[in-house]
Amino acid sequence: MAIGWTSFGQQGKSTELFQRIAHLDSAMFQAYNQRDMSTFKQYFTSDLEWFQDNGGLLHYETVIANFQNIFNRDYVLTRKLVPGTLEVHPIKDYGAIHIGRHTFSHIENGKLEVGEFKFLMIWKNDQGNWKISRVVSYDH
């Protein structure tokens, strides 16, 4: 019996898919960094599943409430994608896998605090409307 494999691999940085996901990443976290909840929450499907290594499985309502709590803090928590870490892989008839590392930073007690973490996001393409349906946030 022969088994056929089709390898899609990571999309080159010049491909349309890579550029689309890179743009979505940038736009979504611009909304995050500006504490723009009405824009930020539009990047997620209502059936979102968020797997956090130190927090377990979370669903849309909890994720949005957690981010609102972050936005309400006295200090500003800023997210940046670590340059050169973005990977994009297509998912046939669904969307794309978005992998990378990012930093979150804020000033606490007069000192800059920075944490670097890994993530994997699954983007669903619903007739050109791209939203995140699954997140795996790890290495905290």
TrEMBL record:
Matching Pfam families: DUF4440 (PF14534)
Gene3D superfamilies, per the entry: 3.10.450.50
Domain of life: Bacteria
Domain named DUF4440: residues: 21-132
InterPro entries: DUF4440 (IPR027843), NTF2-like_dom_sf (IPR032710)
Protein name per the record: DUF4440 domain-containing protein
Lineage: Bacteria, Pseudomonadati, Bacteroidota, Cytophagia, Cytophagales
